[in-house]
Amino acid sequence: MSQAFQLHIANELYRAEDILHWNETHADPYVYDVLMYCKKWLSGHDVFELNTSGSTGTPKTIPIKREQIVASATLSLHFFNLKAGDKVCCPLSIYVVGGQMMLYRSMIGGLDLYVIPPSKNLEGLDTTISYVFMPISGLQLFGVLSQGNQEKIQTLNQLHNLLIGGSSISNGLLVRIHQTLRCTVWHSYGMTETVSHVAMKNVWPKNEEAYTLLEGVEMDIDERSCLRIKGAVTQHAWIQTNDCVSLRDKTHFNFLGRVDFTVNSGGIKIQVEPIEKKVDSLFDSLSIGTPFFVGAVADDVLGEKLTLFINDVDWSTEKKELILIKLIELLPKYHVPKSIFCIEFDYTASGKIDRKKTIQKIRR
Fold first, then answer.
1. pTM for the full model?
2. d(Cα 218, Cα 226) in Å, to the nearest integer?
C-alpha cells in the first residue's frame, strides 16, 4: 500500500494512520461504513465480503480473498494508468462491488480519493477539484447530462477516464455522451464474482461494439454460448455466467443478452435485449426518456406473455396503443410485446433496474 493514500469524505481528511487509529465511532452511518471497510483492509484482513447487486436474483454476499482484490485493483490501476497521488472520485455506493473496490484500489495505488454519497445527479460532487478518474452508473451519468449542469459537466470533461459500470447504455445516454463529453469514456463488463470489471469497451471517442479482456483474464463459452471467466481475480477457477456472448477471438467478445431474461412465450424462446434496443431507438426518436425494460408476466395460454414495462404511471391508453402500433412495424411478429405495464420501478443499490422485484409488484 502506498503512503500517498488519502480519503476525503464529508469534508474530513483521513490518511492511512488516521484510519488505523480511528476509534470506530462516527455520527454519519455512511462515513462510518467507509472507514470500517478501509480499516479492515489497512489492518491486513484476508477475507472480505462483497455483495451482489441482486439485479438478476436474490442479493447475496460473496467472500473474496485479499489476493483477488489486489489482482483486480492492479489490473484497473494499470489499465487506467493511475498513479500515486492521483485525485479520483467515487459517487457509487460502497455497498456494491463497484464502489467498494474504489476504496481498495485507492489504498493499494495510493490514490487521493474523494467519496461522495451516491445520488442520481452527483449532488455532493466538488466541481472545484480536477479528478483524473471516476466510476459512475449509467443512471447517474444520464441524470447529470440531462440536468445540464455545466459545472458538473466541465468537471467530468477534465477527467482522463470516466468508467460506466452496471447496466447497459441506452441510445439516449450514448447520444448525450457523444454530444457533451470530451473525456475518454469506457463501459465495463464484470460482476461481484470476478471482483469488479474484467473487460472494457470504449464508448467515446471510439464507440466500440466488442469488449476487450483485461490482461491475464481468460474466457470460454459453454453449450448455451454463455461466458466463462478465469484469472487471478477468480483464483484461476472458472466462473460460469448466464451472459450469452459471441466470441470474436481469444480476447474480444460481443455481449448478446442474459439467459435469465429469456422469455418463453407459447414455446418460442425470445431474447429481450435485442427488443429493448429497438424500443430504445423508438423512444429516442419520439423524445421519450422514460426508463423501461422488456420482460414477462404469467399467462394462462402462452405461459409467459412478452410485456413492455414503463417507469411512468401516468401514460395514457392512447400513448400505449401508439407505441404498440409502432413496435409492430419495427419487430418480428413474435417479438412484439403483447401489452404495456406502467409501474414505478425498483432499483438495486448499484443503480440497475430490479426487474424481478418490479415484476413481482404486478403479481400481488
1. 0.84
2. 14
